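call fold(seq) -> tokens
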Amino acid sequence: MTKSSHRRPEISDMLKGIERYNPENLNILEQYVEEQATKNEYDLEANLNILKLYQFNPTCFRADVVVNILLKALTNLPHSDFILCKCLLDIQAVEESEPIRHVMNLHSLLETCQFKQFWVCMSIQLSW
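ret:
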């Protein structure tokens, strides 16, 4: 997976200093996650920042964005990116979202080397 290069300088500037905690940046950062998903790119720092902004602004929480962030982190195993992301999530938000719980289950299956079960779960069609 490549580092995201097209918007990387703009996003990097957004993540400096006090601007990192500006909720007005959420829309741009959420679009950036979508770009990462479609262009096979990855920016852990930006993704962690979105999750931190969701902690500070729970009304802005978007489960679809979180699912994309978690899936991108999952593809970076065996690095600890998924755990870093998971630690920034509100437990209630996780419990209320079937797609997030599904990704959490996928992570658990991979971490415990239950690869056949992982692929079975991957093939389940969910209407997210």
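The two ends are 25 Å apart (CA to CA).
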